[in-house]
Amino acid sequence: MEYFDIFDTNGIKLNKTMARGTKTLKGEYHKVVHIWIKNSMGDYLVQQRNKKTDRDPYQWAPTAGAVTSGETPLIAALRETEEEIGLSLKLNELKHMDSLFIENDYSNYIIEMYLVNKDVSLAELTIDEVEVKAVSYMSKEKIYEMIDALKFWDFLEYLPTYDYFSILEKRN
What we know:
Elements: E1 3-7, E2 13-19, E3 30-38, E4 44-49, E5 60-61, E6 63-66, H1 73-85, E7 95-102, E8 109-117, E9 132-138, H2 140-148, H3 155-158, H4 164-170
Parallel strand pairs: 3-8
Antiparallel strand pairs: 1-2, 3-4, 3-6, 4-5, 4-9, 7-8
């Protein structure tokens, strides 16, 4: 069973954890990471999810995952990238872009959004076939087309109070 640390509305860690699959209480959040890898052509390395149990099964998304209890978001970002696509990153390659507080009916969470500017060959990646079906590079425009076609994780729907892609690109 995986456990997550709980944070308050200011992002302060509470002396409390929750098990994966349980509902958060009002005013409590757990952390997740989104890792966007952007190459020198301006395209993003994205993955097609391969788990029927995902919130959005088989859709395309950035590399992402939950921060487990006792783990920092930076370490979680390194772990998720290594586990899901076999890419070893260094701490100094991850640029923290923002912390986004999300509240919904099931789980409140804080997205720690990271950007990595790096040219990565798809041939050098080793995907975890339980988690990931495929990897590809996509332009921002292609990602928006995929969202419209319901084939990419719709951050526009899930994060309506944030201009998600502008946050990602404005500080790059």
